[in-house]
Write a structure and sequence with these properties.
Radius of gyration: 37 Å
Strand content: 5-15%
Mean pLDDT: 86
Helix content: over 70%
Number of strands: 6
Number of domains: 2
Largest sheet: 6 strands, mixed
Distance between the termini: 45 Å
């Protein structure tokens, strides 16, 4: 064939992708560990299994080259699934912690309510128990106190005979239609109020778990006051206002948690490239990681994603060219270390072969595409053109050898289309790119010297 178009997938670009994914997973695992340290209800057996699986993946990645292409592909496919599994486990853990915190807040509120009822009854019937009254008062006001004081007050206020008679009268009254209807309304109102208070407590719990940096003392105070106020129209207005405020705060908190998690993972991925040119961006992203504004985090995430895609494309483009040139070197072509960089920068490179003097191979293709073109060329117009078709036929056989050599290294080369030997006149070119190769070599030497 005189010219052909190929598609290549280089093993080195897959390795770079795997290492980036593992760096992302490592960062996520650190976040997972930090969250589990806060979770008093953590499932130790489940956590141990997750850690073991992660360590197996880390061990696999310590030396990727001995693994077969099939084993490597299988493990590579598992990393995104592991990342999503850890994300979901963290979400479930957060919800579990929020549920526990909300339950504790509800119990505290009901403890205050019970303390207030017992306090009123004790002050009415047994005012001489001043110390117990003080302790109940502190508990009713939400101050730290021993909840055992409730049991002590209940024992003192055991129902007497007159209380039993009073209950009987209350029962009789409740059997009247009007009384029944009134009590039903009161019960419904109380249930609605309790539902609102539980909703408020749920939001507060979300802020406690998701946004521990936030000062919520004022919110706690307003919530406690609501539980003590009469449940009238003003109470409805105050509770609605607090619920709306908390709903907005919790939405922002969740967006912040998700944004910081995502940005942290992306930064880890960028660091895995070990590219000096990314250092200023990574530093900027690290600063954005501390931002509370979801918009700032979203902007940083967009920049990190864009940089990741560009770096992946750059690595892939260079890896593909290096793989092709390495294979051609094994077939006897004159390949220099700088040629892959020149091909990437200039879009083409021409290589010769001592076994076929006067002829060479021109390689071309854009950096954005996995496809490249190979064309047999001549270095002089003053030649025996009868050899041209033989050179074309030689490249046809060499392509199959190149395909086999690349496969041995875990690369995948395929042919998309080709012209038959003699199908087109050979172009005459100089060994183009010689100056570019020299410039590239000078740059490399300068970097090594530094």
């Amino acid at each position: 064939m005189s010219a052909s178009v190929h598609t290549i997938r280089a093993r080195q670009e897959d390795i770079a992708d795997f290492r980036r994914s593992m760096a992302c997973l490592k960062q996520l695992m650190q976040q997972w560990e930090a969250l589990n340290q806060q979770n008093t209800q953590a499932d130790a057996e489940k956590a141990a299994k997750i850690r073991r699986r992660y360590q197996e993946m880390v061990a696999f990645g310590r030396n990727l080259y001995p693994h077969s292409a099939a084993n490597f592909a299988a493990m590579t496919d598992q990393v995104p699934g592991m990342i999503e599994f850890i994300r979901e486990d963290m979400r479930q853990t957060q919800e579990m912690m929020i549920d526990a915190e909300a339950g504790a807040l509800m119990q505290q509120r009901r403890g205050r309510e019970n303390a207030a009822v017992l306090l009123a009854e004790l002050q009415r019937r047994m005012p001489e128990h001043t110390e117990l009254i003080q302790r109940l008062s502190a508990l009713a006001q939400g101050e730290n106190g021993d909840t055992q004081v409730l049991n002590q007050a209940l024992r003192l206020l055991q129902p007497q005979g007159d209380i039993l008679t009073e209950r009987q009268r209350a029962l009789a009254e409740s059997l009247k239609p009007q009384a029944y209807q009134a009590e039903t309304w009161q019960a419904q109102d109380a249930a609605q109020a309790d539902a609102r208070l539980r909703r408020i407590e749920r939001h507060i719990a979300e802020l406690v778990i998701l946004d521990p940096e936030r000062d919520i003392r004022d919110i706690r105070r307003r919530s406690a006051e609501l539980s003590q106020l009469a449940q009238d129209h003003r109470w409805d207005t105050l509770s609605d206002s607090l619920i709306l405020e908390l709903a907005q705060a919790t939405r922002e908190a969740r967006a912040r948690v998700d944004g910081r998690q995502e940005l942290g993972v992306l930064i880890a991925g960028l660091e895995s490239f070990d590219a000096d040119e990314l250092a200023p961006l990574i530093e900027t992203l690290q600063q954005a990681l501390q931002a509370r504004d979801p918009g700032t985090l979203a902007g940083a995430i967009a920049r990190a994603n864009e940089a990741t895609q560009k770096q992946q494309a750059k690595i892939a483009a260079l890896a593909r060219r290096e793989a092709v040139l390495e294979g051609l070197a094994k077939l006897g072509y004159e390949v220099r270390e700088e040629m892959a960089g020149v091909w990437l920068k200039e879009g083409r490179v021409v290589i010769g072969k001592p076994a076929t003097p006067g002829y060479g191979l021109e390689l071309g293709g854009g950096a954005e595409s996995p496809r490249f073109q190979a064309r047999t060329v001549a270095f002089s117009a003053e030649r025996d053109t009868r050899r041209d078709e033989d050179i074309d036929a030689l490249w046809c056989g060499e392509h199959q050898q190149l395909q086999a050599l690349l496969a041995e290294s875990g690369n995948d080369l395929s042919i998309d289309r080709a012209l038959p030997p003699g199908g087109a006149a050979l172009r005459v070119v100089e060994k183009a790119g010689e100056q570019a190769i020299q410039r590239q070599a000078a740059v490399r030497r300068e970097r090594e010297f530094k």
